[in-house]
């Protein structure tokens, strides 16, 4: 099967960012995104998501490299200084490139 190269941009952040972040993601050129509740532990301790203010989400975007870079640059400038988040990008191959 032939796969088409894209980027998978993943942002793990505070749940309070879901609405503005997903608006920005679409405004910056992504065709869509996936939001998943996230729990875990790390540098800042354990996130158990027991309270709504303590929740994290994972936002995944499959897109072209230019769109991934635009979103990452925006997130770094607008959200990273004031919110806890992790952002990473990797290469993926997709079956239906027109969806992304």
UniProtKB/TrEMBL annotation:
Pfam families (UniProt xref): P-II
Biological processes per GO annotation: regulation of nitrogen utilization
A single GO molecular function term of this UniProt record: enzyme regulator activity
Name of the protein described by the UniProt record: Transcriptional regulator
Originating species: Craterilacuibacter sinensis
């Amino acid at each position: 099967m032939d796969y088409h190269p894209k980027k998978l941009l993943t942002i793990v952040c505070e749940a309070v960012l879901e609405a503005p972040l997903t608006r920005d993601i679409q405004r910056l050129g992504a065709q869509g995104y996936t939001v998943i509740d996230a729990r875990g532990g790390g540098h800042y301790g354990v996130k158990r998501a027991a309270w709504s203010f303590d929740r994290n989400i994972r936002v995944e975007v499959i897109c072209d490299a230019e769109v991934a870079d635009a979103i990452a640059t925006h997130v770094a400038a607008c959200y990273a200084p004031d919110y806890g988040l992790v952002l990473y990008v990797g290469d993926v191959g997709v079956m239906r490139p027109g969806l992304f």
